[in-house]
């Protein structure tokens, strides 16, 4: 096997090892996928300043995100069906993140439950909340996150209605997968994945199954999930959630200056500039394109993070230079997980950290806390 040097290497390996319907779930966007592609490509339009004959010793990527010390300004993003990229995927990724020194964010739509992840970690992780029509279930999730000592709640604001993802519909995506001839063939050609899956009983949405009142089997779980995303979710619900949570709150899915201003008024600790990885409104701006405008509007009032399109340490550095206090990686760690399990997640983090460190030095900086717009030579998204 060729050396794994970049996130793209992990992606190629994951594609060979993960059944097509689950790899496609991670590697897809809504409709034409134009926003999904722009999330990545717009980073390349930002050019860096090379500096020379600068003392590059004693470098450090350490900083803080919402007051928590992190080894680098990167968190693992909340991603659904992570446990279908690799058996017990959320548990493995959470352990890798803890050992590396960055936050892990568990999705509501995870395969491993809040309690599963808490059982294998020693430090608090973050929990991402989808607001469902069943408010009793939402309260139950919040109380379970409290019991697990989660240190932040990440409220996703951009999934009131599910964007259409053509690959998932064509693949007949479900968890566990339907045992159709097509799906059986896809799994049979991935024996390593099948063997790992046979070793676990975590193959469905364990945050929901056994906790939502009307969910008793796979059929009722699928029906419940489809109907539960709440199209009436509004800013007043944020206050309701904040009061019941009582801890640090991050609002994810902000892509507009006016929404950023409204989010800053809620008293949340941070916002995440995000378009859901290009999986919701196709044709929207990339996350990095909107970051400077949002930082300019609210960066002095609330901590601003960025999610979407990061595939390298250089991307992280560019986001920080444009004002992000933290960033999130979803697909990079999923590729690592699908490729190699827990070591693959660690490898993805190592790749990004090494690229950040080298690039920071070549830009003439020694500490991530010193990074600002001074390292940018050309920025087409400047306010």
Question: What brief labels describe this structure?
Answer:
single chain; 383 residues; 8-stranded parallel β-sheet; 43% helix; 12% strand
Description:
This protein has 383 residues and is of the alpha/beta class. The protein has helices at residues 7-17, 20-26, 34-44, 89-100, 114-120, 135-147, 166-171, 181-188, 191-198, 218-228, 235-245, 257-265, 287-298, 313-321, 331-340, 342-362; strands at residues 47-48, 63-65, 68-70, 74-76, 105-106, 126-129, 152-156, 248-254, 270-273, 303-307, 326-329, 376-378. The strands form three sheets. Strands 4-11-10-9-8-7-6-5 form an eight-stranded parallel β-sheet. It has a two-stranded antiparallel ribbon with strand order 1-12. Helix 12 links the parallel strand 8 (248-254) and strand 9. Helix 14 (313-321) crosses helix 16 and helix 15 packs across helix 16 (342-362). The longest helix is centred in the last third of the chain and has 21 residues, at 342-362.
Any chance you could write out the topology, listing elements then pairs?
Elements: H1 7-17, H2 20-26, H3 34-44, E1 47-48, E2 63-65, E3 68-70, E4 74-76, H4 89-100, E5 105-106, H5 114-120, E6 126-129, H6 135-147, E7 152-156, H7 166-171, H8 181-188, H9 191-198, H10 218-228, H11 235-245, E8 248-254, H12 257-265, E9 270-273, H13 287-298, E10 303-307, H14 313-321, E11 326-329, H15 331-340, H16 342-362, E12 376-378
Parallel strand pairs: 4-11, 5-6, 6-7, 7-8, 8-9, 9-10, 10-11
Antiparallel strand pairs: 1-12, 2-3
Helix pairs in contact: 1-15, 4-5, 4-16, 12-13, 14-16, 15-16
What proportion strand? Answer: 5-15%
Oligomeric grouping of the chains: single chain
Number of H/I helices: 16
Strand order of the largest sheet: 4-11-10-9-8-7-6-5
């Amino acid at each position: 096997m060729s050396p794994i040097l970049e996130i793209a290497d992990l992606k190629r390996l994951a594609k060979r090892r993960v059944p097509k319907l689950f790899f496609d779930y991670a590697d897809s966007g809504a409709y034409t996928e134009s926003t999904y592609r722009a999330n990545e490509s717009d980073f390349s339009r930002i050019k860096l300043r090379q500096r020379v004959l600068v003392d590059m010793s004693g470098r450090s990527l350490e900083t803080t995100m919402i007051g928590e010390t992190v080894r680098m300004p990167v968190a693992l993003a909340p991603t659904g069906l992570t446990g279908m990229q690799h058996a017990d995927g959320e548990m493995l990724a959470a352990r890798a993140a803890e050992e590396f020194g960055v936050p892990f964010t568990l999705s509501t739509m995870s395969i491993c439950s809040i309690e599963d992840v808490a059982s294998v970690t020693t430090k608090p992780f973050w929990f991402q909340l989808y607001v469902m029509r069943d408010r009793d279930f939402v309260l139950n999730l919040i109380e379970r996150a409290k019991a697990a000592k989660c240190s932040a709640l990440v409220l996703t604001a951009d999934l009131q209605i599910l964007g259409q993802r053509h690959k998932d519909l064509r693949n007949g995506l479900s968890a566990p997968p339907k045992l159709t001839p097509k799906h059986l063939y896809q799994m049979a050609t991935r024996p390593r994945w099948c063997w790992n899956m046979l070793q676990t009983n975590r193959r469905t949405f364990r945050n929901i199954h056994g906790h939502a009142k009307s969910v008793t089997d796979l059929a009722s779980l699928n029906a419940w999930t489809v109907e539960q995303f709440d199209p009436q979710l509004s800013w007043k619900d944020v206050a309701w959630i904040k009061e019941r949570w009582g801890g640090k709150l991050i609002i994810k899915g902000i892509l507009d200056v006016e929404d950023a201003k409204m989010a800053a008024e809620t008293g949340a600790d941070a916002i995440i500039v995000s378009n859901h990885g290009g999986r919701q409104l196709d044709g929207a701006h990339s996350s990095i394109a909107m970051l400077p405008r949002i930082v300019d509007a609210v960066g002095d009032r609330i901590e601003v993070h960025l999610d979407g399109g990061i595939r390298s340490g250089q991307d992280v550095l560019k986001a920080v230079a444009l004002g992000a206090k933290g960033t999130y990686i979803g697909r990079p760690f999923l590729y690592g997980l699908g490729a190699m399990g827990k070591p693959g997640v660690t490898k993805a983090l190592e790749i990004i950290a090494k690229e950040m460190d080298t690039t920071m030095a070549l830009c003439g900086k020694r500490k991530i806390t010193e990074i600002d717009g001074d390292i940018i030579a050309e920025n087409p998204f400047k306010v």
